[in-house]
Amino acid sequence: MPKRTQKWKELPSSVPLAQRAFVLQLRKLREVSDRTQAQIAQDVYLAPTSLSNHFNGGRIPEAEHVKKLYKILRDEAATASRPMPCSLPLLLELRAKALVKHCDCCSAGSPEATAVTPEPQPTAASSPAPKHVRRRPRRLRVRISTRHRGIPRAPAREEVPVPLREGDRHLTTPADAAWPEIRTLAENLATGRSRDADIMMWSAATTLSARGVQAFVAQCRAVGLEEAADQVITNAARRDAQAVLNIASALHNSEQYADAGLLLAAAAQ
Fold first, then answer.
1. Three-state secondary structure of 76-134
2. Is there a contact between 245 and 264 (Cβ–Cβ < 8 Å)?
3. Which long-range contacts (CB under 8 A, 24 or more apart) does 90-96 make?
């Protein structure tokens, strides 16, 4: 097939020599295709005006766009039995040289040129050296459920756990199985650190084992944190089905029948 002829605009005199060499090689690469520029731009995921700007020295394309363009035109050249004017490494090397800004009178056609700017000159003796400010990394904010707001603040407790109440709920969990965590939870609620309390309840419900969740709920009941226990059960109901069944089984084995029923009801919603 005869080779497609392309009429190119003359490059402006303001285009540096390194960028000019890259653009001219880019134009030679474009001439291996008989398709329109709009069709090529669509395959490269560029706007036709952006691709035209690259071919006319307005802006240096990104490396990924150069690789994509080369692959597309290489496949077309192979289909039409046409030789490629250059290799991909050579084209990328010309692009890298075009990004270098040699002096103030030269311009670079891509924001990437800022990475190759000359090193700053030392300041005068009379001028103080610029201070290097280290910025602290931003802490990610985690949205936590606000259901704990309805939980009343528990009064301060003694370090010795409160004995289990008499009645139809007989907890078989050892009295000190989860006491350090429950004591911290009660202190957070009593001192108004509701966010810390919410994190504790959510972590206990979603990360502890089935036996651990059962012990945590049992100790909440033992010290009077009834609504905190309900919140832990509600959060645990969001786990996968197998985890919910394991927790329900642990509650049932500890004769916490009401808690097991609350868990299954919350999971079914």
1. HHHHCCCCCCCCHHHHHHHHHHHCCCCCCCCCCCCHHHHHHCCCCCCCCCCCCCCCCCC
2. no
3. 90/25, 91/22, 91/25, 91/26, 91/29, 91/66, 92/63, 92/66, 92/67, 94/18, 94/21, 94/22, 94/25, 95/22, 95/60, 95/61, 95/63, 95/66
Q: How far apart are CA 217 and CA 211, in angstroms?
A: 10
Which mean pLDDT values do the consecutive 10-residue runs of the chain (269 residues) have?
A: 71 90 93 92 92 91 94 93 94 92 53 45 53 62 52 53 48 50 85 87 87 89 89 92 92 92 90
pTM: 0.40
Question: Which of 260, 186, 175 is closest to 215 using CA atoms?
Answer: 175
CA gap 71, 22 in Å, rounded: 17
* Stated length of the chain: 269
Q: Residue 107: its pLDDT value, please? A: 52
Alpha carbon distance 149, 259 (integer Å): 21
CB count, 10 Å around CB of 241? Answer: 8
Q: Would you state the structure tokens that stand for residue 113, as one six-digit string?
A: 């040129």
CB atoms closer than 10 angstroms to residue 114 = 10
Torsion over CA of 227, 184, 211 and 164, rounded to 10 degrees?
-60
pLDDT in the model for residue 269? 84
| The two structure tokens encoding residue 32 | 């291996």
